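I am still getting used to backbone structure tokens and would like to learn alongside you. To get us started, please write out a protein record for me. Start from the sequence, derive the backbone structure tokens from it, and show both lines together. Once you have written the record down, we can walk along the chain together:
***
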Amino acid sequence: MYIEHVAIWCQDLEQMRAFYQRYFALECNAKYTNARGFQSYFLRFASGCRIELMQWEQVNSGHNEVERQFLGLGHIALALGSRDAVDSLTQQLQQDGYTCVSGPRVTGDGYYESCILDPELNRIELCA
């Protein structure tokens, strides 16, 4: 068993696509649009797992905030392969204006990670 994909509702689909492609080198399919106005992209990691970014005007905006979390998807954790990779990407994202919520650090359960926010305040853990 494995995760095939994780789906994220977006307010700005193109901005989110550009973010995930730029920082995580994901392969992206052509945009899908149906007759009811639903739009999505699938972005694929080298491992085969995918993120589906979705937008539809009928979906209410989320409650994402920098300081608070809400019920539902808590974060996506991405394994970068090394502490140096976590440090480097965290630094690059901060330089480019994205919020780093925590880290890089060793957590109480032994992970080396940082937590950053994507353009729509979804949490992404960058793990070694």
